[in-house]
Amino acid sequence: MRRTATLALLGLVPALASADTITLNNGRVIEADRAWYEGTQLMYEKNGGIFGLPRSLVRKLDQKAPPEPASDPDVLKARERLVAGDSVAATRLLLVAIGRDPRSVPALQTLAEAYLALGDPGRARDTAAKAIRLDERNALSRALLGDAMAALGDRAGAEAEYRRSLQLHPDTEIERKLAEVAPPPARPARGAQFRLRYDGGINEPLGIAVLQMLTEAYGEYAKRLAFTPDEPVTVVLQTETAFQEGGAPEWAAGVNDGTIRIPVRGMDRPTQPLITVLRHELAHSFIAARTGGNCPTWLQEGVAQWLEGGDPAREDGRVAAAARQRRVIPLVSLEAPFQTLAEADAALAYAESLSAVAFIVRTRGEAAVVRLLSALADRLPSEEAIPVALALSYPELQKAWEGDLATVAGRGRNGRK
Q: What is the C-alpha separation between 313 and 114, in angstroms, rounded?
């Protein structure tokens, strides 16, 4: 067994048995290994990373005391010997400790790890099973039994124990092990990219033209986002409802739940406004499929406007003016749908969304958007996904973006594309 696995064992016992719970003002709950306040920031550690949030966003922090570490001196010495790579000496010490206390879960867990390090998965399995009989809800014991079964070639048994461990305590390392032993999900054969439906009468020439345009955009988005949806995108042409060219605010394109619904009554070909809306909605379908809905609204709308061909300079003037007047809506406040905002605030929210995404692309490259969507697809909350993808905390992104806005007036349109 690798030395890193031993180090994980030594540090995992208190972490698995306790966690600090952070409840944000918007109702989101973050389970952290530990959390603490530093001035105006709440700092927390999770999965080996340290993150920060403005204290003003936190409703409450529930801190749980960690359990007492193993007090048996032989168990403590055995852990030291495992770290040093001396599994034989560790095993001798642990057998003595278990002889004194056969019901010591820490000793049994450490002995299972020692047997794995010695290349004896059979004894590791039996020892981990004893620990589980003493405490069926111990995530570490379940993970060690999974390790032993994996080493014995029992992939199904290992998968079951890793899943039980994760149900008791989330852990990215166990998720990685589970992915190694679990069979890959069956993927449907790649077929049609779209399903075309009509709400009203059938307009086949328009439907064919729409699909041709969407197919080109599909290939473009697949390349730029390094992703394609597993299922065909459903497109519903509403032939009994008129498309409002200029009849609605520019930002008021339809709500998209993965299905594209477009009113087209009286149209015989895709006009440029219709093409813009179709590209925008297809972007939403890609984002919904990529993140499973785990995406803040400002990022959804910003990426959709960026991919549709939105000119960032078109909106930065409005956002820069709001920044000068200190009216910029913080991005963290734009995670929920914009429908609840007043019309003027919604217009600014859409403009900010495009501006923020354009800033990310300009300063970090298009790959940063891909990384951010990938992190959200891994179910990370946005306050963790942003540092992972951008190497900036949420507040740091806000500050850097607003600082860039302050230069817009002097820069004009120079450097914009």
A: 61
The listed range with the strongest mean pLDDT (174-188, 256-270, 388-402) is 388-402
Q: Which residue has the tokens 């910003």?
A: 302
Closest CA to 122 of 144, 89, 149, 98: 149
Q: Which residues pair with 41 in a beta bridge?
A: 38, 54
Q: Are 24 and 57 in contact, with CB atoms under 8 Å apart?
A: yes
Within 8 A by CB and 6+ apart from 109, the residues are 9, 13, 128, 131, 138, 140, 141, 144
Least confident of 83-97, 109-123, 231-245: 231-245
Over range 304-310, report the average pLDDT.
86
Q: Are 162 and 143 in contact, with CB atoms under 8 Å apart?
A: yes
Alpha-carbon span 64 to 191, nearest angstrom: 51
**pLDDT confidence of residue 340:** 82
Q: How many CA atoms lie within 13 A of 393 on its CB side?
A: 12
